[in-house]
Write a structure and sequence with these properties.
CATH superfamily: Gcn5-related N-acetyltransferase (GNAT)
Radius of gyration: 16 Å
Number of helices: 5
Distance between the termini: 36 Å
Number of strands: 7
CATH topology: Aminopeptidase
CATH class: Alpha Beta
Structural class: alpha+beta
Order of helices and strands: EHHEEHEHEHEE
Strand content: 25-35%
Helix content: 25-40%
Largest sheet: 7 strands, mixed
Shape: globular
Number of domains: 1
Length: 200
């Protein structure tokens, strides 16, 4: 059976979002632990991050949920102004209008549910949300890893082709950095992140 066949997507707001925060935090930690992010976060930080994200201008959170109520994926987006300074500053310096740019925070999905259209559903929902609010473009950042990174799995398949099929292009030479730990309880390390953008 298609594991995604019994999964539905729904927008989370208000009390529904608050109730889902522990599950969303655990999901982000599980998915981002793997290459290429190698993220070793904590649930307390993740819940604070998601709560702050939900309070941002034009914020949007969509979740993929099984019939039993298990959240197996989520995607977020919001205005880039006033909330994502580390990501906004390089765009502004490159001449992009921030007020008309909608930022995608993340799109995470458990491995068993990939390859069945849920990733496209996440992009569709966020792009529709951005269009409805008058944004002219959407963008997101993705971590940059060397091709010879020692922790790169032999079967790792980058998402570049998927993003390109969605109409996104990589902004060559435009980078930002963001800090996170790669070992539990360890120090934050600086990671380079590249930009991908689609104009409507």
């Amino acid at each position: 059976m298609d594991p995604a066949g019994l999964v539905k997507t729904r927008t989370l707001t208000g009390a529904d979002l608050e109730a889902a925060l522990p599950a969303l935090a655990a999901l982000r930690i599980e998915v981002f632990r793997a290459f290429p992010y190698l993220y070793a976060g904590t649930e307390d930080y993740e819940q604070r991050y998601l709560r702050d994200f939900a309070a941002a201008k034009d914020s949007f959170v969509v979740a993929a949920e099984t019939e039993a109520g298990r959240i197996v994926g989520c995607a977020t987006g919001s205005a880039i102004t006033g909330h994502h300074d580390a990501f906004a500053a390089p765009l502004a310096a490159a001449g992009y209008d921030l007020a008309s740019t909608f930022y995608f925070g993340e799109s995470v999905l458990l491995a068993d549910y990939r390859g069945h259209g849920l990733g496209h559903a996440f992009f569709d929902a966020r792009e529709a949300h951005a269009r409805a609010r008058g944004y002219e473009r959407t963008c997101f950042c993705a971590v940059e890893r060397a091709k010879d990174h020692p922790l790169r799995p032999a079967d790792h398949s980058p998402l570049d082709a998927f993003w390109t099929k969605r109409g996104y292009r990589k902004l060559d030479g435009l980078l930002t950095t963001f800090d996170w730990p790669t070992t539990p309880g360890g120090p934050s390390e600086t990671h380079a992140m590249g930009y991908w953008m689609r104009s409507f």
